[in-house]
Amino acid sequence: MTIKQPSNELPHHGGKLIEFSLRYQRPIDQWVDLSTGVSPHHYPIPEIPASVWNRLPEDDDGLITAAQTYYQSNFLLPVAGSQAAIQALPNAISQTQSKIVQVLLPATGYKEHQHAWQKYAEQDIQAVLFDFYQHKPTIEQLKTADVVVVINPNNPTALSVPPSEVLTWLDHIHQDATLIIDEAFVDCTPELSVLPSFPTGVPDNLIVLRSVGKFFGLAGVRAGFCFASSLRLQIIKQHLGPWTLSGPTRYVTTHALLNSHWQKENRQRLHEEAQRMNQLLQQHFGQMAGSVKITSQILFHRVEISDSASWHHQLARLGIFTRHCDENDALRFGLPANESQWQALTRALEQLKE
Asked: Pfam families from the entry (predicted)?
């Protein structure tokens, strides 16, 4: 029997502040961490009863009902962040789909999707071909793909597609194909979500992923939701096993999903801060010589620039931790947490502009 060694090439992520602190010899509390797209304003953690820590998690604790109300769709499965679902989907989908020969992915996008399908292809169950699209797939690509992955809004390009257009893609994929929509960053712009179109549950050929960590600033709780048909949710649940979310995570997430007043205030605050960030980046990068392209979502902003690696390094030397995108052609900026961090970022950009 031949045992294949797993690939050592794992996708890179932001958020490795301890590693960068050691690399640049700067204490953690002296950094402005803009390396993730996580909101710098976290949902206020309620007091967690001792029983929640002591007992095993239970499905009927109110989380499902809270999620159904917040996401406006009924059939869902709590997962340990949308990342957990991304890893489970290839094998889960293969159980309900007769063939997976061609997988269509965004050329630039969250690399864990591609990594998960590449791991599936390495199992040698059947040959899998990969095709890639820029921003939007063509009709020809949709017709030939067995699995289509869409990230909306896209991370890290910050580009988005209206849900009405995304839903038309369901009409172009073949009868046995699956459309996966990753909506991890959609909470700031909920009008981009397809879920309100399916209040009683999504169709068999659609899977939608949502994240709690980004908008609610709770990346550490590792919570998200997967929306799919009842059969597919059962299969995904079998792959994930029991107790995917801890009791404290379920408790905090339930409170966050039910607090519509906080959600409204946070959404407005993030929109204002996103506008400020866009203006700041336009001021410092927009007038530079050469090809510079700035695209913005609410929680993150992308600056495509020829010497991005140098900018990433120089900003790090000044205590500004950005995300150098995988394509090595852009920087991604998250939002500062407070006015002191805003001023530190402004000073750093002004210093490097001189």
From this structure: Aminotran_1_2 (PF00155)
Amino acid (1-letter code) at residue 264:
K
pLDDT of residue 354: 66
Residues 157, 108 contacting (CB under 8 angstroms): yes
Burial class of 91 by CB neighbour count within 10 A (0 to 12, 13 to 18, 19+): middle
- What is the residue extent of each domain of the chain? 17-42+261-353, 50-258
Q: Quote the DSSP letter at residue 71.
A: H
User: Which pTM does this prediction carry?
Assistant: 0.93
Check whether the bond before 106 is cis (ω within 30° of 0): no
The predicted-structure confidence for 146-156, as pLDDT tens digits, reads as follows 999 999 999 99
50-258 CATH fold = Aspartate Aminotransferase; domain 2 (3.40.640)
The class (CATH top level) of 17-42+261-353 is: alpha beta
- What interhelical angle do 230-240 and 82-94 show, nearest 10? 110
- H/E stretch holding 130: strand 129-133
Residue 21 is inside which H or E element, if any?
helix 17-23
Kindly give the pairing relationship between strand 320-321 and strand 32-33. Answer: parallel
Task: Using DSSP bridges, classify how beta strands 178-182 and 330-333 pair: parallel, antiparallel or unpaired.
Answer: unpaired
- For residue 80, the SS3 value is coil
Q: What is the residue type of 155?
A: N
Phi, psi (degrees; rounded to nearest 5) at 306:
-65, -40
Q: What is the pLDDT of residues 92-134, one digit of tens each?
A: 999 988 889 999 999 999 999 999 999 999 986 778 999 999 9
- Give the Cα separation of 190 and 173 in Å (integer): 25
How far is residue 128's CA from residue 118's CA, in Å, rounded to a whole number?
A: 8
pLDDT in tens, 182-240: 999 999 999 999 999 999 889 999 999 999 999 999 999 999 999 999 999 999 999 99
- Residue 277 phi/psi, 5-degree rounding, is -65, -45
CB 86 within 8 A of CB 115: no
Q: Which of 216, 236, 217, 218 is nearest to 226 (CA)?
A: 236
